[in-house]
Amino acid sequence: MIKGSCLCGGVRFEIARVLPLFEFCHCNRCRKATGSAFSAAVAVRPEDFHLVQGKELISSYEAPILKAPPPYRICFCSRCGSHVPPPDVDPASNWFKIDAGLLDDDPGVRPDRHIFTDLMAPWYEITDELPRPDWDTLVELRRPLRRPS
């Protein structure tokens, strides 16, 4: 079991397993939300996620759609401000992302790609050799994570 928590420890969760997807996202919204050059997130299926405590501490912000869906929702601990997983994960969804910095244990996967690098901060330079897929390639890479119809 992989455990995770917010900065103050008020929100705690467990993950049975992490999917083989660990992305560094350089989009404008992820940069603004994290206050960093990119977000680092792992993918988890809803049935593998369990919120242990702190549901009452979780607040969210829904950013308006800029040009086209998807919408952008950030959940955070109302006490310490840390990003946290949503308290109401749709069980029908294929997967959702959890910020890797929240994990207290090793998720067993390592970063495997940088996404939306065309939007990356001009002051940041990628110095690793991880792939940087374009949108069409990214969609194909994520296809195996979808549930069979």
Keywords:
149 residues, mainly beta, Metal Binding Protein, Guanine Nucleotide Exchange Factor, Chain A, 4-stranded mixed β-sheet, 3-stranded antiparallel β-sheet, 10% helix, 28% strand, globular
Helices, strands, pairings?
Layout: E1 2-5, E2 12-15, E3 22-25, H1 28-34, E4 39-44, E5 49-53, E6 58-63, E7 72-77, E8 96-99, E9 113-115, H2 135-142
Parallel strand pairs: 3-9
Antiparallel strand pairs: 1-2, 2-5, 3-4, 4-8, 6-7
Instruction: Tell me, briefly, the overall form.
Output: globular
Helix residue percentage: 10-25%
Please report the number of helical segments: 2
Number of beta strands:
9
- What is the mean predicted local confidence, pLDDT? 91
Query: What's the CATH class label of the domain at 2-19 and 38-108?
Result: Mainly Beta
CATH topology of the domain at 2-19 and 38-108: Metal Binding Protein, Guanine Nucleotide Exchange Factor, Chain A
Distance between the termini: 28 Å
Pattern of helices and strands: EEEHEEEEEEH
Radius of gyration: 15 Å
CATH architecture of the domain at 2-19 and 38-108: Beta Complex
* Strand order in space, largest sheet: 8-4-3-9
Low-confidence stretches: none
| Overall SS class | mainly beta
Strand content of the residues, in percent? 25-35%
